[in-house]
């Protein structure tokens, strides 16, 4: 006997399952009411919130990975952090709206989102670094390549993270129906605590012990395992047999991809490093402060020192750079000299080459670089074994803090052998406050030498440094050296007497109207 069809609800789509809301597509199973759980509702609710916690931690690690890698590859950490966070928050809102259409298939939708998020988020760091390594310096066709790729990853990851929230809200309500305010409070509490754990784990555990590439792959694996376990273990009753098989195969495939990639990470890093630095890479290490790479230095090959991808020592050009920085400042009393930065010993080599230097203090943030300058045969030979000279005292620490703790009138000369002023992490070392501390540390008539950045390509930064030194009460004499290097020599007394070498020449007065840089308002 064929029974008559039940009358369709008003507004329901013809052929839609009973209980489906208006507009539900025909033939799609729609779950309504409590889910059929293999555990008690209280345990099920705890498991959903635990998954929220894990997914939030993974999501924040993805964000921090992109910020860290973009800052390393493109510099200017403030800009990169602003781009990543703002684009991802925007994408999360769009993802939340888009996920509303998946709520009637919350379990299957959540599984699909976690698979995609684990694959894209886990492989994002490696993809960015691969494009950087094998396309050179982003010139020509790739002039805007890094930012475009970064924005693409931010949009994709943000969309998927945003889609998690409404789906998880639907799942937690399927476990046990509660008022909307209580459900939102529980969900957001687990989400924010997970974000806290992920945010702390990245700089203190993942980055120092695993590195950027391996940590992102590990987080992707944790992400897909958490999502798959929740759906297949707790909400398998909401899935058809075919859907369960698809979810299982997708999770296993992503895990296999991440695992195989993790096995090949070391080989990938070596290949990418050789693509960036050439085939003579001899030392490569992440110190916790920066990446240090040494190439050559053996079998007659010239040595080159790279710090965070920037050439800092080696070759005739770098010798001329140190000479142009140090020697003009040594024309005058120089019994006591302070070198800020310069943990490679190259600036100290030039200081010690001048008779009359009785005490040279070096302060560098990176103790690993100091050890390398002392123990590596090639680098020690390049710096003339300056670190082991009995006149030299070396301390690992922050240059700003060191100047603050220095008694007034301690030094005849201060050499600022510091990273480029355009790097956000270095801007406090080019501020009016910093130069005020340096002025206090100098004896009357003492001299301060500063590398102020490339003059032709970044004149604004150069003249901002010079203006800032004058604002701190110093008398300045800007000059340039062969190779687009710009320097400023300053004194606490009369205008410094510039005695320059070959290829170096003084500069006329800079543009008017420049504003000094301070800790709160860097102007580079």
Automatic annotation (TrEMBL):
Membrane topology per record: Multi-pass membrane protein
UniProt keyword list: Cell membrane, Membrane, Polyamine biosynthesis, Spermidine biosynthesis, Transferase, Transmembrane, Transmembrane helix
Binding site for spermidine: 344
EC number: 2.5.1.16
Domain of life per record: Bacteria
Pfam family, any one: Spermine_synth
Active-site positions on this chain: 417 (proton acceptor)
Feature: compositional bias, Pro residues: 15-28
Binding site residues for S-methyl-5'-thioadenosine: 290, 364
Transferase found in the keyword field: yes
Start-end of Low complexity biased regions: 1-14
Compartments where located: Cell membrane
HAMAP family registered for this protein in UniProt: Spermidine_synth
Similarity comment: Belongs to the spermidine/spermine synthase family.
Protein name (record): Polyamine aminopropyltransferase
Gene label: speE
């Amino acid at each position: 006997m064929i029974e008559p069809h039940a009358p369709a609800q008003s507004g329901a789509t013809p052929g839609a399952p009973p209980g489906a809301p208006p507009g539900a597509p025909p033939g799609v199973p729609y779950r309504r009411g409590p889910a059929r759980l293999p555990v008690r509702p209280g345990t099920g609710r705890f498991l959903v919130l635990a998954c929220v916690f894990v997914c939030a931690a993974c999501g924040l690690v993805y964000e921090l990975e992109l910020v860290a890698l973009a800052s390393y590859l493109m510099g200017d950490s403030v800009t990169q952090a602003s781009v990543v966070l703002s684009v991802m928050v925007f994408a999360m809102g769009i993802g939340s709206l888009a996920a509303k259409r998946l709520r009637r298939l919350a379990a299957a939708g959540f599984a699909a989102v976690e698979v995609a998020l684990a694959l894209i988020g886990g492989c994002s760091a490696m993809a960015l670094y691969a494009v950087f390594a094998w396309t050179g310096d982003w010139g020509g066709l790739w002039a805007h390549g890094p930012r475009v790729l970064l924005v693409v990853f931010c949009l994709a990851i943000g969309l998927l993270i945003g889609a998690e929230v409404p789906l998880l809200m639907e799942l937690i309500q399927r476990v046990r129906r509660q008022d909307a305010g209580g459900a939102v409070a529980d969900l957001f509490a687990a989400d924010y605590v997970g974000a806290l754990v992920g945010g702390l784990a990245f700089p203190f555990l993942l980055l120092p012990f695993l590195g950027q590439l391996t940590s992102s792959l590990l987080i992707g694996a944790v992400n897909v395992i958490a999502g798959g376990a929740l759906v297949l273990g707790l909400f398998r009753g909401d899935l058809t047999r075919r859907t369960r098989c698809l979810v299982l195969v997708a999770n296993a495939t992503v895990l296999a991809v991440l695992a195989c990639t993790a096995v090949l990470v070391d080989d990938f890093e070596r290949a990418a490093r050789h693509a960036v630095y050439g085939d003579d890479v001899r030392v490569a290490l992440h110190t916790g402060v920066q990446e240090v790479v040494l190439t050559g230095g053996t079998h007659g090959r010239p040595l080159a020192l790279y710090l965070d991808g920037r050439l800092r020592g080696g070759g005739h050009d770098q010798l001329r750079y140190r000479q142009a920085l140090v020697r003009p400042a040594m024309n005058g009393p120089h019994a006591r000299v302070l070198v800020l930065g310069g943990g490679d010993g190259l600036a100290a080599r030039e200081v010690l080459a001048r008779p009359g230097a009785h005490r040279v203090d070096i302060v560098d943030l990176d103790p690993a670089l100091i050890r390398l300058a002392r123990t590596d045969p090639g680098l020690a030979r390049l710096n003339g074994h300056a670190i082991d000279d009995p006149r030299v005292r070396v301390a690992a620490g922050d240059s700003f803090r060191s100047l603050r703790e220095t008694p007034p009138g301690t030094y005849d000369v201060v050499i600022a052998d510091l990273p480029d002023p355009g790097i956000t992490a270095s801007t406090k070392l080019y501020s009016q406050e910093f130069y005020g501390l340096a002025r206090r540390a100098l004896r009357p008539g003492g001299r301060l030498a500063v590398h102020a950045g490339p003059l032709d390509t970044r004149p604004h930064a150069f003249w901002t440094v010079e203006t800032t030194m004058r604002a701190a009460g110093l008398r300045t004499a800007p000059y340039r050296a062969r190779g687009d290097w710009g320097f400023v020599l300053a004194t606490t007394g009369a205008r410094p007497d510039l005695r320059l070498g070959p290829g170096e020449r003084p500069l006329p007065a800079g543009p008017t109207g420049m504003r000094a840089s301070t800790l709160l308002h860097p102007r580079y």
